[in-house]
Specification:
The protein has about 70 residues and is mainly β. It has strands at about 1-10, 20-35, 40-50, 55-65. A hairpin with a 3-residue loop joins β3 and β4 (about 55-65).
């Protein structure tokens, strides 16, 4: 089993459009199961908040295969 997590905080400013300056906060939590060396199936949940877009949530399911000779 593999578990992961990330946290991000960003702030940006645009001198040409000062009304677009904002901060953004993001969190990603996920887990996966490795069924072969380098191959895994997993699920991640992402949550982002910023002053321009608002609150955004995504769920990502993935399947990764590694092929060797």
């Amino acid at each position: 089993w593999v578990f992961n997590g990330r946290v991000g905080i960003w702030h940006w400013e645009d001198k040409l459009r000062p009304d677009r300056a904002t901060s953004s906060y993001g969190v990603v939590l996920g887990g996966a199961y490795r069924f072969f060396h380098g191959s895994q199936a997993g699920l991640e949940w992402e949550n982002d908040i910023n002053g321009i877009v608002g609150w955004r949530t995504r769920v990502l399911a993935y399947l990764r295969f590694t092929v060797t000779k």
